[in-house]
């Protein structure tokens, strides 16, 4: 069934320290994302980019204590929350383009209020489950999922005027291969369903996705996909800020997207961490829109 898809650009770089990721939404548009989705048969509405606070270069590059760029992340998250909430109120499918992964604090805040038990598939090399106490850097792009669960700075966890957007038992992590010690401990304590790269190697992506769907389908009333391009091996997606060798292949990721499309359970998605300033001829954006083609139902035959 064809969808009405609203593209929402989320040009934030405040969650980390590498400039350029704020140009990710436009890099994805330039690479042909909208045309790719329209060719499948969907209607695409491009809402443009969410308003962002001014990027103060002196502050951005300077050393900070505590949570980096906290005020800017809060402002941006609230702006994105409003945009995504409007899309869901219209009954359309929000596709949020990033931007660093801190944007998911705002995007999922705008989605979760429309569901009793939102499920989240976090397709990423990282867990993004830190708090200030466990973070080695203070970068908020390593904290969004923990904030959405309800832990961390009170302003971050209450974006949208409410907290506890996602329950730990409604989350599946896929592609993990770079977890901080505090994240490992937390995953074990609360029992987050996790597939590391070792699990993917042993089981195969087909089994991982089918198990993920089986795990979430009866306990949730909608599933959000948050796809960080650093889940893929950096040979496939070099234009991202936190590369980790030994990642998911492009073909495995296509299969994952095809299976998620076939499940008919995904109600929204983030596509994050595309950074054209450190990319190779916009390769990462082109790879990412190829995955979105499979995600929205593109077939080889």
UniProtKB/TrEMBL annotation:
Cofactor note: Binds 2 manganese ions per subunit.
Gene Ontology biological process: arginine metabolic process; urea cycle
Binding site for Mn(2+) 1: 101, 128, 228, 230
Keywords for this protein: Arginine metabolism, Hydrolase, Manganese, Metal-binding
Gene Ontology molecular function: arginase activity; manganese ion binding
Pathway: Nitrogen metabolism; urea cycle; L-ornithine and urea from L-arginine: step 1/1
Reaction(s) catalysed (UniProt annotation): L-arginine + H2O = urea + L-ornithine
InterPro entries from the UniProt entry: Arginase, Ureohydrolase, Ureohydrolase_dom_sf, Ureohydrolase_Mn_BS
Assigned EC number: 3.5.3.1
Cofactors (names): Mn(2+)
A cellular-component GO term for this protein: cytoplasm
Enzyme class of the recorded protein, top EC level: hydrolase
Annotated Mn(2+) 2 binding sites: 124, 126
Sequence similarity: Belongs to the arginase family.
Protein name: Arginase
Organism annotation: Mammaliicoccus stepanovicii
